[in-house]
Every structure is written in structure tokens, then in C-alpha cells.
Amino acid sequence: xxxxxxxxxxxxxxxxxxxxxxxxxxxxxxxxxxxxxxxxxxxxxxxxxxxxxxxxxxxxxxxxxxxxxxxxxxxxxxxxxxxxxxxxxxxxxxxxxxxxxxxxxxxxxxxxxxxxxxxxxxxxxxxxxxxxxxxxxxxxxxxxxxxxxxxxxxxxxxxxxxxxxxxxxxxxxxxxxxxxxxxxxxxxxxxxxxxxxxxxxxxxxxxxxxxxxxxxxxxxxxxxxxxxxxxxxxxxxxxxxxxxxxxxxxxxxxxxxxxxxxxxxxxxxxxxxxxxxxxxxxxxxxxxxxxxxxxxxxxxxxxxxxxxxxxxxxxxxxxxxxxxxxxxxxxxxxxxxxxxxxxxxxxxxxxxxxxxxxxxxxxxxxxxxxxxxxxxxxxxxxxxxxxxxxxxxxxx
Length: 396
Hints:
Blueprint: H1 6-28, E1 48-50, H2 53-57, E2 60-63, E3 65-69, E4 72-81, E5 86-89, E6 95-100, E7 107-108, E8 113-118, H3 120-151, H4 157-183, H5 188-197, E9 203-207, E10 212-217, E11 224-225, E12 234-237, E13 241-249, E14 261-266, E15 274-281, E16 291-299, E17 310-316, E18 321-327, E19 332-333, E20 339-344, E21 349-361, E22 364-369, E23 376-380, H6 382-392
Antiparallel strand pairs: 1-21, 2-23, 3-18, 4-13, 4-17, 5-12, 6-8, 6-11, 7-10, 8-9, 10-12, 13-16, 14-15, 14-17, 15-16, 18-22, 19-20, 20-21, 20-23, 21-22
Helix pairs in contact: 1-6, 3-4
């Protein structure tokens, strides 16, 4: 259910008031079947009018009934990416882009290559790896010979120990060089291939760190990139969930809690509702608007929503209540600001009742006081009776 703002209710009544002029002309003249020329206030009964049969046929009557109203709060906000799963994909090292592999709007999985760069840092690290591997092979061979000589007592113990130390140092340097290459995203198999072929490959692969959709691309072949320099070559976000940032009146904050379910609608998608829950309630109140920013996580597995859309936020604050209800066209806002409903017992004389309005949902007004269930009331065209009472025949 959605709560219609009271301002729209007033605008709708004003529009109906324009139309009522034409209907009053019908009421005042040209009525067939011998109808009176116009209606007048019922003598001796304030705030009442009498209608003839033709005039009664121009309005709609129905017994007043009860209706279930949801206890909810409304607010307006904007949609944004879920920043927990939205990343800017920078290159960790400087270089020039060689190739790109994704376009805006593409869905990618974590680990998919987005672009490659020609990285001098990777080239240096691979050169260090090859050199460390060569030293390790040399010290390993030297240690083998030293051990054979030492076993035949042809080599001093200190020389053998030096050979052992040199080999351990070389192995440590080789492991450090392998770890340095691994930081660039190379696998052990690729590292072994570099050592075996003694050939460097300066192409650095930049993969997507999350699964999601490409939301921005500034990468192009030949572009020089630097770590952290904006804009990032690519931006990726998981758009199956979005954030809604709504400004909620400070008077409604007491009804909010973390995890509370919410429903969201956007103008572009009509009455379609999206479900979510409150994730964060702002710790401060905006002094100029007296609102609190509430962040909700909205589920959108079909990717129908778009970040930046304006959205309406409905929050359930309690269990639904059953209350007296009258259609909005049966409630009139009078010139003094009061709200009125017209009731009748004989379908001829109509009495104006001042009522207290509560919630407004789905074209119905909640009536907190003034009428009771079962009374026969005008549910469409009530403004016409108010116009008759306040000057419809020129006597009031």
C-alpha cells in the first residue's frame, strides 16, 4: 500500500471543483421529470441540503464501512550502488594499457580479465626471478661438489659450511623473487614457465575483483595508468542489490530500527514494488531540513532499477489496523480547512458532518471521528453538495 500526500488530495478536490460548475448547471436547469430548478438548504437544519431524484442520481452513495490501513511512514530518496560490492578497478602498478576485454553493461565474474598493461615493474621482477633462479642452480651445484669433496676429506669443513650457507641464501632469494611475481597475479605454473624458458613477459593482467556489472569504463589501448589516479580504468558493481538513501523526518525516527522491512517504488516502473530492509540509520539530524538519512538495502535480482533514480520509501511501523474509511472523492476539504463527509438517511436530505482524517491509502481516507460504520454517505461527488450549501442557489 502507498500513502498519498495530502497536497495531492487538495489538488484533486480543486480539479473536481472546476468540473462541478458544469454539473451545477445541470442541477440548476434542464432537469427532466419536473425536477425543481435548484436545491436549497433544508429549512431549520444547518449544514444540510435537499436533492431531487435527478440530482441524487448524479452522486454515488454507499454505506460507510471499515477498511484495513497499514501503519507506515513515507519518505523520498535516491538509489545508489551498494558501496560494499562496488569497486574501482585500478592497476596496482604503472604501465600502458595493451588490451581491454569488457564494455559498459557487461556482466563479469570475479577473476575475469578486464584489461592488460605493459608493466615495467613486472619486467623488473621477472628479471630478478630469472637471476635468482640462476644463482640458486649455481649454488646447488657448488654445494653438491663441496659435499662430495668433504665426504672424502678433500675439503675443509669451513669451506663446506660456506657452500651450504651460499645455497641457503640463494634459495631464499629465489623464494622471495617468486613471491614478488605472485603479487602481480602470476600462478606458480606461470612462474615455473618463466624460470624454465628464461624469458620475461611484461604483460600484467588486471582481473575483476568482484562479480557484477561493468558500470564505467575509461580504459583504452595506449592509455598510461597510474595506481590510484582517477578515473579508474573500470568500475564494477554487484547491481543485484542497491542502496536507497532516504531523508526521513526526525519525528518518524523513533519508529525506525535496523533490519526493519521496507518497500520501494519508482515512478519509471509504476506500481511495481521492491523489497528491502534498513541497514543504517543516520546518527545526526540535518539542521536545515530536520531529517535523518536512512540507508536501506533493496533487492533487485532482475536489474530493473538504476542508480540515481528517485524512489518512494514505505516503512511498516506496526501491524495493520481496521478503521472507518471513506473514498477520497467522498471527503471534502472546506474553505476553513476542515474535512467533511455528507450522510443521509432518506436519500433526499443530506447532512454535512465534520470529520477527522487519519491515514490516506489506496484512494481511501481513514476517518478517526465524525461518522460510524453503516451510515449511508456520498462516496463520489461530495464536493457538489458542499458547493450547493455554500452558494449553489445564490441564497447561502
